[in-house]
Amino acid sequence: MGVRSLAAGMAAVAFAMTAALTGPGLAAADPGVPALGDDFLWGVAASGFQSEGSAPDSNWSRYAAAGKTADPYRDSVDFYHRYRDDIALAKNLGVKVYRISVEWARVQPHPGVWNDADFAFYDNVIAAVKAAGMRPMITLDHWVYPGWEVDRGGWKNPAMVDDWVADARHVVDRYAAADPLWVTINEPVGYPLLELSHGDLGPADIPAMQDRLVAAHDAIYDYIHAVQRGAMVTSNVAYMPGLESVAALPFEDRVAAKLDYIGIDYYYGNPPNADALKNEPWRNSLQPEGIYYALRHYAQRFPGKPLYIVENGMPTENGQPRADGWTRADDLRDTVYWLQRAKADGMNVMGYNYWSLTDNYEWGSYTPRFGLYTVDVLTDPTLTRKPTDAVDAYRDITAANGVPADYRLSHPTTSCSLVDPPISCTQPVTGPVR
Ligand code: BGC
Questions:
Q1: pLDDT tens readout for residues 313-323
Q2: Distance 183 CA to ligand 1 centre (A)
Q3: Pocket of ligand 1 (CB under 6 A)
Q4: Virtual CA dihedral for 327, 288, 332, 297, nearest 10 degrees?
Q5: Could you state, in order of their start, the residue ranges of all structural domains in the chain?
Q6: At the top level of CATH, which class does the domain 32-426 belong to?
Q7: How do residues 112-154 score in pLDDT, each as one tens digit?
Q8: Which amino acid residue places its CA nearest to atom 5 of ligand 1?
């Protein structure tokens, strides 16, 4: 154990003792917030279709081509050709994990055919991530499947599960040796909703699609464990404030026996609303302390199981200042403070990924911006990555394994948060404010 880990451990004990005496609110004699350990996994997250460009035929390339999206896809931020530079940017942040998805539509462009040439891009990406000293986190399905599966009916087709598993096995065979963390299906509750709004899925098809996602997850979980010793596998939930127990949790319950860690995506403090449906997420309210409530929710449901924030970030409208005044750096630092508090209060938080390293295609639109680096896809042909204020903030955080012990929040906490009702309102957390 390094000196920093030892110091962090001692501070955590002091914090936990004080918190035990005073409850989850701010301790009377505040010892400050302890840093996370050297083993904490700081990361960045992205998905293939959203960032790669040079897109093969898929459900989503077809949605864009059919004009079902606000913006054309173009070549997104061209990660396909710029992956080395982007991986270098991530390395510079000091992160240890780089999350990508391996796109089924790219590696199996035709039924029954997997060629080395089609895997070459991901071979290179994963090799570059490893060479930069990072661990890959691989998502097997980030909502995109090949065009030939669209022609067969997509998730309405019962045979989709076998096809999905056949492809995923190839991916696992090829990359297990890189010792990745695995995400089987990204946000399995959100996936059908986008198929509903953009594809041919009808409301009555949703239960069958959910059943098929469960079957796909369970099958590939067992396969990954047969191939990779000590593998860590999840299917990440989109944390839905106010609705978690009826929204994402039921899926997690169905696959609970086959989850090595709970992947959680936390973004907003308000329940999904009309702005989300309009793809205007910058109107949502930010509540960094909600990440504490989300972690507490899952820590109580799955005692002791490792928790990993697989996605978190802050949207702006085209990179403009937010109406509520939050900056990306302030939101990130406040969020990390709450990770530290969660860990100090005994929650088994193992990692955190920022969504996203760069701006990307937000499922039909380039207006919502989540990137640590901003990219103006529609107006800048050079696709230059321009740092936001959160780049330096994240680098400082990874270097110190958190915000300083005497950190002061940039914004006060919400007096009655509904992120996890009723206890987020009846048992609130508070922290010191600047
Ligand atoms: C999804 C990402 C998306 C992000 C921001 C998550 O629900 O996994 O693909 O870009 O949220 O909206």
A1: 999 999 999 99
A2: 14
A3: 47, 50, 186-187, 190, 238, 265, 281, 311, 355, 362, 370
A4: -160
A5: 32-426
A6: alpha beta
A7: 999 999 999 999 999 999 999 999 999 999 999 999 999 999 9
A8: 362
